[in-house]
């Protein structure tokens, strides 16, 4: 089993791009668990910090500890059920920004490698073409930087497998910079954090049925 010591980032004022009576959207910092982990040392998480401001907050979905960006929480059971159903039905549009090692050749493409848990080394995931679950990521190159041998990309996860974006990019030879789980040592050393940020969400508001589009600029 692969483990990474949990050292939550210092407490700071959380940024809420959107809040109403049914839901709130918060920008999660990198290095913070979305929900409590096992053990008292992992009780500090985004959910507990949000509940200091909004005690009625209910988690709807999660981001990896190392990933930063937009996270939606419900504020009542009815909204929680409606939002959870949207995520399960893949009706929520998600866009991420990442910086990867190397120069990606295609301006845009799809990665459809099936994924499965690497049980002897969990929580690692891996590509398994015979037993893996269907997984699809679309990407678009935003900028290539030949002088630094890196590429900035937009990522759209069509499916929502654990670590999907990280494993898919690693599988095509372009690991995300700062990825201590899947990156080569030289790619890990090039950044002080995982260079992955949930930058945009589009969903249907559970009460008004209006389309809600939210954005958060990349911090890197």
UniProtKB/TrEMBL annotation:
One of its GO terms (biological process) is enzyme-directed rRNA pseudouridine synthesis. Its EC number is 5.4.99.28, 5.4.99.29. The keyword Hydrolase does not apply. Pfam families: PseudoU_synth_2 (PF00849). Keywords: Isomerase, rRNA processing, tRNA processing. It comes from the Bacteria. The keyword Acetylation does not apply. One of its GO terms (molecular function) is tRNA pseudouridine(32) synthase activity. PROSITE patterns: PSI_RLU. CDD domains: PseudoU_synth_RluA_like. It catalyses: uridine(32) in tRNA = pseudouridine(32) in tRNA; uridine(746) in 23S rRNA = pseudouridine(746) in 23S rRNA. Residues 22-169 form the Pseudouridine synthase RsuA/RluA-like domain. Dual specificity enzyme that catalyzes the synthesis of pseudouridine from uracil-746 in 23S ribosomal RNA and from uracil-32 in the anticodon stem and loop of transfer RNAs. Belongs to the pseudouridine synthase RluA family. This is Dual-specificity RNA pseudouridine synthase RluA. It comes from Parazoarcus communis SWub3 = DSM 12120. The lineage of its organism: Bacteria, Pseudomonadati, Pseudomonadota, Betaproteobacteria, Rhodocyclales.
């Amino acid at each position: 089993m692969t483990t990474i010591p949990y050292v939550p980032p210092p407490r700071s004022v959380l940024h809420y791009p959107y809040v109403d009576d049914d839901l709130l959207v918060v920008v999660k910092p990198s290095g913070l668990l979305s929900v409590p982990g096992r053990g008292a040392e992992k009780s500090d998480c985004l959910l507990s910090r949000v509940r200091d401001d909004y005690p009625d907050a209910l988690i709807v979905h999660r981001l990896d500890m190392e990933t930063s960006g937009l996270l939606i929480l419900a504020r009542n059971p009815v909204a929680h059920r409606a939002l959870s159903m949207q995520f399960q039905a893949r009706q929520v549009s998600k866009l991420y920004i990442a910086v990867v090692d190397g120069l990606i050749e295609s301006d845009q493409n799809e990665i459809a490698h099936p994924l499965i848990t690497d049980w002897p080394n969990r929580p690692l995931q891996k590509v398994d073409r015979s037993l893996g679950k269907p997984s699809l990521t679309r990407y678009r190159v935003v900028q290539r930087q030949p002088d630094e041998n890196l590429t900035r990309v937009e990522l759209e996860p069509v499916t929502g497998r654990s670590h999907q974006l990280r494993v898919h990019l690693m599988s095509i030879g372009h690991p995300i910079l700062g990825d201590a789980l899947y990156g080569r040592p030289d790619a890990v050393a090039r950044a002080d954090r995982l260079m992955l940020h949930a930058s945009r969400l589009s969903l249907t508001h559970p009460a008004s049925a209006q389309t809600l589009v939210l954005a958060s600029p990349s911090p890197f």
